[in-house]
Amino acid sequence: MPIVSNSSGIGGRRIPLDVTLPDPLALARELRVGSRGASGASGMTKPTVRTPSTPLGLVTLALVIAMVSVLMVSLVITGGSYSAPAPGLPDPGALVVWGTPILRLLTDLAAIATIGWLLAASVLDPAGKGGVVSSTGRRDLMRAAIAAFIWATLSITQMIFALANILGLSLSETFTPQVISTFANEIPLTRALIAISVLALVIGVGALVSATTGAALSWLVVALVAASLPSLGGHGAGLGDHAVALTAGIAHVLGAFLWVGGLFALAIHAARKDFPIQKAVQRFSSIALVAFIFVAVSGLANAYTRLDSISQLITTGYGQITLAKVVVLVGLGAIAWIIRTRISQSLTTSRTWIFARVASIELLVMGLAVALGVALASSAPPRIETQFTSIGESLLGFSYPPAPTVTSVVFGFRLDPLFFTGALIAAGLYCFGVARLRSRGDTWPIGRTISWLLGISVVIWCTNSGIATYSQVSVSLHMTEHMVMAMFAPILLVLGAPATLALRAIKPSHGNERGPREWLVWFLHSWPTRILTNPFYVFFIYVIGLYGLYLTPAFGWLMGSHVGHVYMQLHFLFAGYLFYWIIIGIDPRPKPLPYWGRFMLLLMAISVHGFFAVILMMSTDLSLAPEWYSIVRPPWVTDLLADSETGGQIAWALAEIPSVLVMVVISIQWARNDDRESKRNDRQADRDGNAEMNAYNDRLAQLAEHDRRNS
Known about the structure:
Blueprint: H1 24-33, H2 56-78, H3 94-124, H4 135-167, H5 171-174, H6 177-183, H7 188-209, H8 213-228, H9 242-272, H10 278-306, H11 312-315, H12 317-343, H13 352-377, H14 391-396, H15 406-411, H16 417-439, H17 446-464, H18 466-470, H19 475-495, H20 498-505, H21 516-524, H22 527-532, H23 535-550, H24 554-559, H25 562-584, H26 595-618, H27 626-629, H28 640-688, H29 691-710
């Protein structure tokens, strides 16, 4: 069936498109012909066969209808379709029950389109000089803005349907100020949809007024954050695997939306022949490979959190749809491999149609995968929720650990896939950069490599060892984790100088397009980095933030959810990294502090941090999250106040060690800087005959002569 169009979405111009779904065997023969061109072995030119054109709008509508049909069939199989409840039970009606997942599908499609056009404008499209978007990029930003406004509208509409479905009310009963104002901000899903709608509106306005690739990339990051919000309250949150479900859900959404969105934008450009897309396809193939890995691994993790056994893949409707999605994913991987190995390397302007045809097939299969994913997200999984014996264990998502010992705290293990995977990736990329430098004969200090790997090890220990488990039920052990995560790990990571390594290891891009190295340079000199490295801002979030977090209800509120706990750990790590980056960092930063300023900032931090520890030790009541630690209280915590006082003592003691270490590092750096400055002055004096010193002495002589004459 042909997928072609003779119309354009923006500007009103009609542009012929020649995108068709080919016969697979014929396409394979075309790929084998490859670079031999249009002539056969006999030298005769093959006739060009043109297929009748179909408007792109009709093709898109047909694809959406097919996806909705697949979604509805999948809902019937998984048990997520409408069935009339027993008399007396709330009934939102068939329109609400069917409309909610359909609106979710349409909302996801709008999000995918927004992300795809922003990815094209920031990374895939040809760029203008100085980071300014080209005319193609500007049109893609306009398309992203339109898609974002549609995304916002669909999100708020889906919120109303979801609210009606959860409350068991009809649309007329739900769409009232009383119901919406009372319940919309109390349910995680509807609250996320409201936030998405606001962010999508901001993205739409931002895309309209943006003119640089840096701004487009910033809006892309915001769009990815917005798209991941519904995953924070998914099915797996209540199944006893909070960390795995959260990490897998977000990774799945980010990988799938980047993959589908980028391919969608490239397919449209290939069909319209807006620009030579060979480089864009090659850049996107790397993005697609990473996205495929994310989708595949996170899909397996999602299945683990929602199924009790492998047999449920066959015996339950939910498992059957999951299995169908796996088959679709394998097919997508095969098509992506064809694009990466057989098309992207030999793509020319005259062969753009090959990519357009294969991409159209992949988009069709991707649409089916998205529909299956929405059906799974809208249906109850067969896994039985884990039942715990106490309210505290239900809040934690795991049973109380035994009384802490050195072995259980230091050598215990509980997987946190977000930090564990992220840390391993960071270590692998660093080692790859060092290996690349050494392969071309360059050197890299071994001390920096050791420092980075030790810092990664500390992060893994803080988030995956026994201390990570015990910190959620004990104030003293929480403060131990905090001090190590916020002080020891950042110091080691900063001394590893990862940005300097990346700048040396990554090859620069050619032309105006920004590659990874150019994006890193842009980030290091961008206005967000100037704000992030401002000493007043860093001092506020690193030190003053302690008071705002621990001495207010914010601490208990964040401890009450896995998302909040992850946020705190990320805050500790990044706040510490920023603080030590501007104090002892080797990597370039927008405006380095003088060494005396670094000493002053460190002394102020030590003083304010010490005062915080004194507050904890002198407190006569439980001041740290009493609403959390009084509920999540294992039998071996017999005195909450004593535990809190111990936490203050730990905060005081552990802060001294890294502070002394940092003072030593600053002193060494200051001394080395003076030595370099002296050597530079000596070399300058050798070159100009000590002109600066002679000029200074002449000036002193003139002043002395002036004083003698006036006396």
